[in-house]
């Protein structure tokens, strides 16, 4: 029974990811999540992963499933900035690595709410901060001046 439950959750997880990719074709999934995390002895330390991958993407967003501000953020990027590579990683399935990543996001950013948004490798805040940049006309120039063109492979 437990094995069947794990299989069921796996199928739901894959279907949800396929739905996200189809719903937000302008947004790309973060490649290489499992590449080179640092084992701190207490589990993996994702602080370096966060720093490395946010530097390599014009826009990098860590989201939760069923998060309304996260959906609004993705929708804004899809509608207003379809030409800008916006990478995102959606958490919320309760896996141990997600809990650790969430703790490390809190340590790196000082923010404890989703979404975590990085523009040109710099943490800008959450959904309202991204909307403020957009509304004041500062998001497009920031992204256009961003040297990041894609994920760096170490």
TrEMBL record:
PROSITE patterns: GLUTAREDOXIN_2. The keyword Cytoplasm does not apply. GO terms for molecular function: protein-disulfide reductase activity. It comes from the Eukaryota. Pfam families: Glutaredoxin (PF00462). Residues 59-124 form the Glutaredoxin domain. Residues 1-18 form the signal peptide. GO terms for cellular component: mitochondrion. Coiled coil: none annotated. SUPFAM superfamilies: Thioredoxin-like (SSF52833). Keywords: Signal. This is Glutaredoxin domain-containing protein. It comes from Mesorhabditis spiculigera.
């Amino acid at each position: 029974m437990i094995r069947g439950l794990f299989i069921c959750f796996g199928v739901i997880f894959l279907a949800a990811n396929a739905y996200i990719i189809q719903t937000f074709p302008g947004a790309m999934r973060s490649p290489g999540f499992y590449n080179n995390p640092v084992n701190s002895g207490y589990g993996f330390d994702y602080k370096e992963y966060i720093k490395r991958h946010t530097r390599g993407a014009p826009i990098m967003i860590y989201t939760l499933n069923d998060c309304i501000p996260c959906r609004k953020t993705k929708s804004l990027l899809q509608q207003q900035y379809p030409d800008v590579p916006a990478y995102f990683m959606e958490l919320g399935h309760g896996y141990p690595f997600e809990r650790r990543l969430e703790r490390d996001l809190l340590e790196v950013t000082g923010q404890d709410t989703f979404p975590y948004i990085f523009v040109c490798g710099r943490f800008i805040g959450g959904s309202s901060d991204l909307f403020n940049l957009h509304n004041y006309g500062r998001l497009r120039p920031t992204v256009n001046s961003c040297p990041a063109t894609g994920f760096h492979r170490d």
